[in-house]
Amino acid sequence: MFTLSEAATNARPIDNKLITGPIASTLFFFAMPVLLGNVLQSLNGSVNSIWVGKFLGENALAATSNANIIMFFLLSTIFGIGMAATILIGQSIGAKDVDKAKRVVGTSAVFFVILSIFITALGAVFTPHILVWMNTPTEVMPFALDYMRIMFLGIPFMFGLNYVMTVLRGSGNSKTPFYFLLLAVFLDIGLNPLFIFGMGPFPEMGIAGSALSTVIAQVVSLVLLIIYLYRKQYFLRIKRDELYLLRLDREILSALIKKGLPMGLQMIVVSSSGIALINLVNTFGADSAAANGAAMQLSSYIQMPAMALGAAVSSITAQNIGANKWDRVHRTTLIGVIYNFLMAGVVAGIIYVFNREALSLFLPSNGPAIEIGIQINNRTLAAFVLFGVYMVVAGVIRSTGSVMVPLLITFTALWVIRIPLAYYLADQYGFNALWWSFPASFGMAVVVTCLYYSFGGWKKAKMI
């Protein structure tokens, strides 16, 4: 992998192991910082949930679960633009066209700023209405509103940090994002109790303090990351004489919208289905909502290998597609699927064996919510391993610019199968039965995606 100093000297990446190195080890070492970053983010969320659930109560924990699904929905709206930029940068670098990669950085940065400000304004206005629509329990509503008001202030910085990290991964650098994500997580974890309980000179803010800690951590990490990249003269930085690149280039903007919009819609489909599911869960009361929040915290650890591998194979295959090395693309797909079964399967097995102990980290050990959470995990853990297969294969397909079929598969799996099935099972057989909708929907997504990978025309797609 090229170094920062080499990039500064030669103005282009050299010795790019993503397109020349051994595939198994290259994928592993590229994916590991992404995976560790996902672990850190989930650990951060888990520690924050422990502070909130254990010391502020189950209503506060349910509030963060409801609020976080809204945040995920809003982040989804710009996810596609980031993915499209990552693929364009990867293909450009694979083709050794650094100038084009910089054009992508300039256009996508401006577009990200505009979108983040617009989404922040929309979210600030409509959050109370969304919480009502989600059937948020009355006793949970004040906590959720306090939490969300602070979180919305930090959206531009959260979006900005995520954007810079995706650009770096698209260029073949997965280590630097990890280091600054590590900084953000440590800051968030350290500040949480200070603002929640009002320790020392810090004000006592309750659940709002948890949100403020997250915002401060994101701001500090983003600012320091940008300073670091410029001091190290990273080869994709926009220099003073290149400020003209900070504009909406029509060709690149068209690709970002045409390819990014379906990928963003795919994430919106995922997040909106999560809102619909929480809407159903909330009708069963605060205990069920809290149990679902704790179970989802644990399931996020199973999804982390899948998400890391999906992001890694997408970056790696994009560069290999740019270099026209299709044999490496297919071998990367196979190795990615194998890694998913090994990593996600182990995590799912550990959670299954220590089900009660894991849930008790977030829930009172003698309350009814923990029993509900055990039943949720028993029915959903294995399904998230299937989710990983879908993430890897779909990540490879999207790296060519083929984005519509993965969108249609996701929509069918979640809105045609999971949500209707969950509502039907809940109505006919009760709360515990609705969770069988998870293996049904993930199983369908895996089968159809693998068929499209084997026989579809995804290899003919183009980003521009």
Structural write-up:
The protein has helices at residues 4-10, 17-20, 23-55, 58-94, 98-133, 141-153, 155-170, 175-197, 207-231, 250-282, 286-322, 326-353, 355-359, 368-398, 404-429, 437-455. Helices cover 80% and strands 0% of the residues. It has one domain (26-460). It is built from 16 helices and no strands. Helix 4 (58-94) runs parallel beside helix 7 and helix 4 packs antiparallel against helix 10. GO terms for molecular function: antiporter activity; xenobiotic transmembrane transporter activity.
Total domain modules: 1
**Principal-axes shape call:** globular
Biggest beta-sheet profile: none
Give the structural class: mainly alpha
Mean pLDDT: 87
Strand tally is: 0
Features:
464 residues; mainly alpha; cell membrane; MATE_fam; transmembrane helix
Question: Short summary of the structure?
Answer:
The chain contains 16 helices and no strands.
How would the blueprint of this fold be written?
Elements: H1 4-10, H2 17-20, H3 23-55, H4 58-94, H5 98-133, H6 141-153, H7 155-170, H8 175-197, H9 207-231, H10 250-282, H11 286-322, H12 326-353, H13 355-359, H14 368-398, H15 404-429, H16 437-455
